[in-house]
Specification:
Layout (H helix, E strand, L loop, with lengths): L2 H9 L3 H18 L6 H8 L7 H18 L1
């Protein structure tokens, strides 16, 4: 599927489905960077639709975990 098709299909998803897709993509990106998302990250991801600051919290957590992984 080409990008324009994928984007068009994504627009048809419900709000909940879009958040689930975001959670999946964030998990995939974290895996590529060698970051294992703990329970705290999963809670932030799951609550992103109820909190405007959740995305910022998640990015801060991911950056913190990445720094810890690099220091090991």
């Amino acid at each position: 599927m080409i990008n324009s098709e994928l984007l068009a299909q994504t627009q048809l998803l419900s709000r909940v489905e879009k958040f689930k897709m975001m959670q999946f993509l964030i998990s995939e990106l974290a895996k590529e960077k060698g970051i294992i998302l703990g329970d705290e990250a999963a809670e932030i991801i799951n609550s992103v639709h109820t909190s405007n600051g959740a995305a910022l919290q998640l990015m801060q957590l991911l950056e913190s975990e990445q720094k810890q992984a690099q220091n090991v």
